[in-house]
Design goal:
Length: 509
């Protein structure tokens, strides 16, 4: 709604103006009225009207004083002046003041409506012009960033010649004054690219940097430094200790190119910079890694696979936690020698941890382990291999933990109480009594528990027949599985599958 302030020293005029016209029909709201110039000015500052309909002659200051006082601070207000005198001088003064319209008393409703609609039209036109200007400015600002990003991406791809470089550096306002340059790459934490770019601009402000995102690499920020020579490492180390290591918007290292004599050389170093970023998780956060200073041996795939096989075999044989952990650390040490890319590391860790997951007979064997750091891989490994200790804490016996771990890993084999006792180097009578005392369940009850848990997983996550599932769980007959399944779950295998089947299931090993 357009806001209107009425100013006239006559009460009857003010009331008449309020009541004689359907202001809502005009899209106007009368927000106030005043009987003198000073009160009008005060209300104008408080109410911010779009239109002021003001009498010229009033006790004290006149209507022109209202215009002169408000014009500087409220230049967009439309003034409609009211006068009881057909005075040429008044009209000329009104024109000089830039009023919207000039009405003579006695006031005519039709003329008032015309004057107000004229003022409204000018207000709407001004607001539309302002809106269009704001949109255009926003469009230009937004597209300036896009154009800069697009140009820099072309520059990095080698699709810019010297003439294009000169033109775009000027038109896009890029700070590429040289005389030499260094290119830095940094990876942002999800959703924090803008914050990272702001921090990088502050940290490297002495080099008047150009900061940009990179097309097709939404999480990478590019920093171009203008330098006389390569900054000393101690300068970069200061930045690392003071700022970068503590930035919660930075993910990993800062990859640094060699010196470039021209921006046209940037393309030569992009493959090396991207490769460093992908290997950055091997270094402390915020470390400056220079492209030409890093050499990476080829990944020893066969040796890694052999160590993984030995590690898995040790877990199957129930080797001590200390021994297995040592093997895992040796595996990490071997992998770290070549500092492979994160995708390679994740592939190896996912394979290893999923295999251990299956060996231990844990539910949800289709879990994916996407370790983004060495410490995360250690945590996942420790969590997986901590089953005996968890069982020890639960049942107060390390031996019970080892027994249950063994049953959980071999439930699908033809195992017996005697065989498990032999593996534990104890008599079968002692094993039977120990399980009953500590867990209140017998050996066979535990065996059926592990088999049924695996059957539940296969029923919900695979399309295997119940006969096949019985076989995979160590039963010679699906009828035996059905009997124990119903005892432990209260449902038949068919009922369980109907209730808990995963719509995205497929056959799992």
């Amino acid at each position: 709604m357009i806001k209107l302030l009425i100013v006239d020293d006559e009460l009857v005029v003010r009331q008449g103006l309020r009541q004689a016209i359907d202001w809502n029909e005009l899209g106007v709201s009368v927000v106030g009225d005043a009987d003198n110039a000073r009160d009008a000015i005060k209300q104008a500052y408080q109410l911010h009207p779009d239109i002021i309909m003001c009498d010229i002659r009033m006790p004290g200051e006149d209507g022109f004083s209202v215009i002169h006082t408000l014009r500087e601070s409220m230049p967009d207000v439309q003034f409609i002046l009211i006068s009881g005198y057909d005075d040429r001088e008044y009209m000329l003064n009104a024109i000089r003041c830039g009023v919207c319209d000039y009405l003579l008393k006695p006031l005519d409703i039709v003329e008032i409506r015309k004057a107000v609609l004229k003022a409204c039209s000018q207000i709407y036109a001004r607001k539309e012009k302002e809106r269009a200007l704001l949109e255009r400015n926003k469009f230009l600002i937004d597209n300036l960033d896009i154009l800069r990003t697009h140009f820099i991406s072309k520059l990095l791809d080698g699709n810019v010649n010297s003439e294009e470089l000169k033109h775009n550096v000027s038109s896009l306002g890029l700070s590429l004054k040289g005389p030499q340059y260094m290119v830095l790459l940094a990876k942002s934490i999800d959703g924090k690219m803008y914050e990272l770019m702001q921090n990088l601009a502050f940290i490297f402000r002495q080099y008047t940097p150009t900061i940009s995102a990179i097309q097709n690499h939404n999480d990478l920020a590019l920093v171009i430094l203008n330098v006389e020579e390569r900054p000393e490492d101690k300068q970069f180390n200061f930045f690392t200790k003071t700022f970068l290591a503590n930035l919660d918007c930075l993910d990993g290292i800062i990859a640094v190119s060699p010196l470039c004599s021209s921006p046209l050389e940037f393309k030569l170093h992009m493959p090396g910079l991207l490769d460093l970023i992908e290997r950055g998780f091997w270094y402390p956060k915020g470390t400056f890694c220079h492209v030409n200073d890093e050499v990476f041996p080829s990944f020893p795939k066969e040796r890694v696979q052999e160590m993984e096989r030995r590690l898995i075999d040790s877990i199957k044989k129930g080797k001590s936690d200390k021994f297995v952990s040592q093997q895992f650390e040796e595996l990490l040490s071997l992998i770290s020698e070549s500092r492979p890319k994160l995708s390679v590391f994740q592939e190896e860790m996912n394979y290893l941890l999923q295999t251990i997951h299956g060996v231990l007979g844990i539910e949800n064997r289709d879990s994916t382990y996407m370790c983004s750091s060495v410490s995360e891989a250690r945590q996942q490994f420790a969590k997986l291999c901590n089953m005996p200790n968890l069982l020890k804490n639960k049942y107060g016996s390390e031996l019970v933990g080892r027994i249950l771990q063994y049953i959980g890993m071999h439930y699908n084999e033809d195992i017996t109480l005697e065989k498990v006792a032999s593996e534990m180097y104890i008599s079968y009578t002692y094993l039977s009594r120990l399980l009953k005392e500590k867990t209140n369940l017998s050996f066979l009850e535990w065996l059926h528990y592990f088999r049924v848990e695996r059957a539940k997983e296969l029923l919900s996550e695979s399309d295997y027949s119940i006969h096949k599932i019985a076989e995979l769980c160590g039963y010679n007959s699906y009828k035996v599985l059905s009997e124990h399944f119903r005892q432990l779950t209260g449902l038949t295998a068919t009922e369980y599958r109907a209730k808990y089947s995963n719509p995205k299931k497929g056959n799992i090993e």
